[in-house]
Amino acid sequence: MVSRKITPVLHARLEFYPAVALVGPRQCGKTTLARSFGGRYFDLEQESDRLRLDIDWEEVVSGRELVVLDEAQAWPEVFPRLRGAIDGDRKRNGRFLLLGSVSPSLMTRVSESLAGRLSIVELAALHRSELASDQQRQRLWLFGGYPDGGVLSGKGFPIWQRDYLNLLAQRDLPNWGMTARAQTTQRLLQMLAATHGQEWNASQIGKSLALSYHTVNGYLDYLEGAFLIRRLPAYHANLRKRLVKRPKVYWRDTGLLHALLNVRDRKALLSQPWVGASWEGFVIDQVLAALHYTGRAFDVYHLRTSDQREIDLIVRVDSELWALEIKLTTRPGLDDLARLNANADLVDADRRFLVCQSKEYLERGPQVVCNLDDLVARIER
């Protein structure tokens, strides 16, 4: 079993809260991680497990074992019952571990029933720092981080990713409330792959699908709630320059992105005109996952001005503001660093990171030139 970086955070939350929700995309390893904690396990997508939990409810909630409820969103009736069990003994923590494949914004019963009683922890697909070998880390960008998608074994990509997305479009997303037909969802996924790393334009996407921009924005909410897509909001500040206000949209897993764009190997990937955007999205996801696994609170943005000055990623963490420029190169130039500093000055960034593929680590004052592994190691420290 792969050791997951979120495990200490999960233990700490269970010690402090009666219930914890571990959320993340399907097939990212939530069940494997949860079952390593022991306790009593129920898969609420299975009618037999729902019946077993219903019949044994009083015995289950009065016991001292951790109760693991997998795919909790599949049985909304459980949330009010959990609230009653928790309120009956508010001093007991670490009682329930809920697993979900949709974000709490879609699990409305969580906010209605368990506010103040539950902590939410997100598990992403596999991270570079969780992989055991250099070969696996080399595969991660191309194959993505789903354990069964090829990153561990080198087998399955891109067929596994295509089957995964087809199942989501045909079954899971409709079950979670997305009203689009499977064919429409699949076309939308293709368009999101083609516009990965670009500013979100719902009107343009909607026109291509013969849908209103309101409808397309609603569909994007579901895809974001299913942990497929990340919307990176625009940075807002009182600057002298006019700022672009649209968010950027990225695929959270580059293996899914590459499968949609029919890329089968690293050579083909490096020949694509959009390879820089793919690398940018990959670095952003790895950086944000590393921050999340430290348990620290943070906010993230991108910045673009009307005269095309931009910062790929802005992170507000603790009392600092970080500006990150992401380059797919092993030899960044002085002009790259100068551009980063000039743009970081717009927002008075405390730290300026030029993230590239260089093997050297260079730091002078607030300026750092490093590769992704060095940046992740710095975050973890």
Structure, described:
This protein is α/β, with parallel strands linked by helices and 381 residues long. It has two domains: 7-122, P-loop containing nucleotide triphosphate hydrolases (Rossmann fold); 128-380, no CATH class. Helices cover 44% and strands 18% of the residues. It is built from 17 helices and 14 strands. It has helices at 7-16, 30-35, 47-55, 57-62, 78-87, 108-113, 134-143, 147-151, 159-175, 182-194, 202-209, 213-225, 254-260, 266-270, 275-293, 334-346, 372-380, and strands spanning 19-23, 40-43, 67-70, 96-100, 118-122, 198-199, 229-232, 248-251, 298-304, 310-317, 320-326, 351-356, 362-364, 367-371. It has a six-stranded mixed beta sheet, with helices on both faces. The protein has a five-stranded parallel beta sheet with strand order 2-3-4-1-5, sandwiched between helices. Strand 10 (310-317) and strand 11 form a beta hairpin. The longest helix is centred in the last third of the chain and has 19 residues, at 275-293.
Into which percent range does the helicity of residues fall?
A: 40-55%
**Major sheet:** 6 strands, mixed
Number of domains: 2
> Could you tell me the radius of gyration in angstroms?
22 Å
Low-confidence stretches: none
Strand segment count: 14
Give the strand order, joined by hyphens, for the main sheet: 9-10-11-12-14-13
Q: Could you give a quick summary of the protein structure above?
A:
The chain is of the alpha/beta class and 381 residues long. The protein is built from 17 helices and 14 strands.
